Amino acid sequence: MNSPPRFAVASRRVVTPEGTRAAAVIINGGRIEAIVNRDHVPSEVPVEDFDDLVISPGLVDAHVHINEPGRTDWEGFASATRAAAAGGVTTLVDMPLNSSPVTTTVAALEEKRAAAAGQCWVDVAFHAGLVPDNLADVEPLLDAGVCGVKAFMCDSGLDEFPATGEREFRQILPLLARRRVPLLVHAELTDEHATAVEIRNYADWLASRPESFERNAINLLRALCAEYLAPIHVVHLASGPLTSHFFWAKQDGLPLTVETCPHYLHFYAERLEGADPRFKCAPPIRRKEDRARLWEALIAGVIDTIGSDHSPCPPDMKHLASGDWQSSWGGISSVELTLPIVWRGLRTQIAPFTRVAEWLSANPARLVGLADRKGRIAVGCDADLCIWNHEEEWTVVGEQLQHRHKLTPYEGERLRGRVQRTYVRGQLAYEDGKFPAGPIGELLRRNP
Ligand SMILES: [Zn+2]
């Protein structure tokens, strides 16, 4: 596709790393050529003025499960990337499960790239997986351009993606330290005090996966991070008190970073009474006090990134009718909703647009090795933009979401902030329910 012509978008709220200001962003050949005062745009450049709307950097979602090939009936590249575009996400990074095959070899990565080619509405990159029998595959996967290496310290739910732990991490961390590629970890580690709990309500689910599981895992990861000085990124932190571990790791200068997810910032366990499988995810959604601590840690810069952990499955796998919690698939689909969930949650907090852009765009772009072109409104970067109304409140209707299966725990939730346009490399990927540019998404590789 040809690069779009030179043009500019302007508003009173252009979110740059240095702050939010009235400006025009001049776009040329899909990149940001300049950020200038509105009346300094050269007369031959057409300008579209968005007045009070916010022009933010496109979101970089480093945690999305697309499931294609192999489980495309759960979610596929076309539906997931359209949902992303509708949510202002301009780059997403696909997790190595739950596709089939899982992305644990270069051959599987190439299968995935072939499946994605030509059906992505936004730019897409890939994480690889670490399992007990693929240690020799990790370096070739890095050479092939994966953004991170994902491991589970507990059962992943998939037989073909077994858990790993200290033994495998010690073997792989020297390589990741040398290559500066993060180990992404699902950090729950059971202990001998764990007891089987029959799940009748959400409190039972919480009791079955206590905070100590997260603590066990994070203690080990912090020690390994200090020993190998390899980048380790804990995904989907749910516990509020454990944020202090990341504060101290940062004080010590360790490359230990952490993500949380929209559902931990929006819901809380006291609100969830029965065992409604739509809310099943691991770690579980914890108490209201945890939620408050997660927000504090975000605002203090202790939590680095927010990833959706978009993890869909067909509705029948949720077993809503029978309420069979144990066999219900865990995972929440929200790639399209991250921005309005976060912005609504911020209503009672104080954080400027620039901080939101760090959590949702700049920090994840740095994590996945794409910060030279993604995650910022800055000269030379890709013109990936999310143009949104920060005052609009609206109610989620699952049927109107773009991802494959419409079942969502956010059904009926009031959110705040609505995406109106999404530009991917200067091309209009999304506008008011339409996708004018088509499947223009590129498949990206991490920079060496
Ligand atoms: Zn995940």
Note the topology.
Elements: E1 7-16, E2 19-28, E3 31-36, E4 47-49, E5 54-57, E6 59-64, H1 77-86, E7 89-94, H2 106-116, E8 123-126, E9 128-129, H3 138-143, E10 149-152, H4 166-179, E11 183-186, H5 202-208, H6 211-228, E12 232-235, H7 243-251, E13 256-260, H8 262-266, H9 288-299, E14 305-306, H10 338-345, H11 353-367, E15 385-395, E16 414-424, E17 427-431
Parallel strand pairs: 1-4, 1-5, 6-7, 7-8, 9-10, 10-11, 11-12, 12-13, 13-14
Antiparallel strand pairs: 1-2, 2-3, 5-15, 15-16, 16-17
Helix pairs in contact: 4-6
This protein binds zinc ion.
Account of the protein in words:
There is one protein chain. The chain is an alpha/beta fold and 448 residues long. The chain folds into two domains: 82 residues, Roll (Urease, subunit C, domain 1), CATH 2.30.40; 309 residues, Alpha-Beta Barrel (TIM Barrel), CATH 3.20.20.140. It is 26% helix and 22% strand. Strands 1, 2, 3, 4, 5, 15, 16 and 17 form an eight-stranded mixed beta sheet that branches. β7, α2 and β8 form a beta-alpha-beta unit. α4 crosses α6. Bound molecules: zinc ion. Zinc ion binds next to loops.
Looking at this protein, list some descriptive labels.
Dihydroorotase_CS, single chain, globular, six-stranded parallel beta sheet, metal-binding, eight-stranded mixed beta sheet, alpha/beta, 448 residues, 11 helices, TIM Barrel, Urease, subunit C, domain 1, binds zinc ion, zinc ion binding, EC 3.5.2.5
Return the domain count. 2
Overall mean confidence score, pLDDT: 94
Per the CATH scheme, the topology name of the largest domain is: TIM Barrel
Major sheet details: 8 strands, mixed
Rg on CA atoms, Å:
21 Å
Helix content: 25-40%
Q: Which compounds are bound in this model?
A: zinc ion
Structural class by secondary-structure content: alpha/beta
User: How many strands in all?
Assistant: 17
Number of continuous helical runs = 11
Q: What is the terminal-to-terminal distance?
A: 26 Å
Subunit structure: Homotetramer.
Pathway: Nitrogen metabolism; (S)-allantoin degradation; allantoate from (S)-allantoin: step 1/1
EC number: 3.5.2.5
GO biological process, one term: purine nucleobase catabolic process
